[in-house]
Amino acid sequence: MKEQELLRAILPEVIIDNFEVVRFEKSDTTFNIWLDEKKVQLREDKSSHDVISHGFGDYRRIQDYPLRGRATFLNVRKRKWLDKSTGEIFSYDWDLSEYDQTRLNAEFVAFLKEGD
Hints:
Elements: H1 3-10, H2 13-18, E1 19-26, E2 30-37, H3 43-46, E3 51-56, E4 60-67, E5 70-77, E6 79-83, E7 88-90, H4 106-113
Parallel strand pairs: 2-5
Antiparallel strand pairs: 1-2, 3-6, 4-5, 6-7
């Protein structure tokens, strides 16, 4: 089984499609997974050379569903973008309507919808 297939079985697809795993730690009682938003612009920003990646926000720790008897924490950070024409720094809000029937918890949904 490929690593991506395993991750898709464990984590919601919106995570695997839009974030990359940058670190993983396992202890006797917890799994900690660190995820960074991929450097992918929305379609309307790709054609503009004014919007560039501008680092990351802080990690937010979100408790996910337990795995194999261990508490599971997703440490997630969203990418910041700079619109050079306006000087505005922003993060993308994710449209989660296509994920209505997934196992996303309310805390994670709120994080993905949150802007800076």
